[in-house]
Amino acid sequence: MLELVLCSLVTILPDYLFRRYYQGRRIGHEITPFSVWFELRWGITACFMLTVLLVTIIFYHHPSTTHAAPLFRTVPILPETSGRVAEIFVEPRQVVERGARLFKLDSTKQEAELELERRRVAEIDASMVMAQADIAAAEGQIQQAKGAYQQALEELETKEELRRRNEDVVARREIERLRTAAEGRQGGVVAAEAAKQAAETRLTTLLPAQKASAEAALRRAEVDLQKTVVYAGVSGSVEQFILRVGDVVNPLMRPAGVLIPKEAGRARLQAGFGQIEAQVMQVGMAAEVTCVSKPLTIIPMVVTGVQEYIAAGQVRAGDQLVDIQQVARPGTLLVFLEPLYAGGLDDVAPGSMCIANAYTSNHARLETEKLGFFHRFYLHMVDAVAMVHAIILRAQALILPIKTLVFSGH
What we know:
four-stranded antiparallel β-sheet; 14 strands; 49% helix; rod-shaped
């Protein structure tokens, strides 16, 4: 409507003034509803064409959208294991800090497993003490076996010396018996040394490995016990928290609630512009928004990012081929806006519906590039008509509360 009024000021109005005051045509006589079209046909046609041209230039170079909102992500409150709620530490809508306890699951099973693993570690420690005693006992057996072996050797040497002097004194069978006994006692020494080596290997290799495994199992049991307590991953507000003692929660199917971070929806705003604006939207463009949750206020913004992809074109692997006709909606160009000044979105409720305008600026090109007269004139005109869109946004900001409160019946 504003564009039509502006265009009529340079088309229909001069045509009417010319015919009314220069040609002397009178309203109700020469100028009647039936003769308006014939008399003002050139002005009406020019006004219509100029309006269409102006609207096209404005909406192309200074895009606008009603699909804008400060989106935010919620963090589901989920335990890492299934269980029955034993204790609750927070209330619904309570503000918590990161690391605060939210609720606790029944930990009877985990506590029993932890105690069992502790007993296993203590058992291995006792086995290590016993292994040291076995080594001491093996050393004693080695000394005893060596003593018996030495005694058998001495007795064998004595009998052999006597037989060399007189064969009738010691029988040959006695010598063979003593030699066999000495060899047997030598085997006892070897067996005692092997028993000591086995005890040392058990103490230095087997039992430490078993203790390390038991300690790892102990740490796993401690972690499983810690998982029964659910902590806040971020600082924020606990919402939709209707958990009660005795409820069963499942990390896959039944969350306990959601946690909304403190800064959720406060730092940036996401807007969906038409795909035709893909060549116009650039990082650094000035923008303005007005939101329903903060009426009668224009918030200066700046474009900080433009998504390269259109979400409507996303293809997900399945068992059927995707027909392009299934993409019913063309999709929008996702643009990220941030406040030009700190705290610009503080009073805007996260998720609030907003209207956004972005403005093309050719000031840098006009200052640095050498352009022709008509090109420079066109760029000046593009920058000038941004004022029209800014006026429209302010008119929308004024009408928005009336439209919401009166005409919508809220």
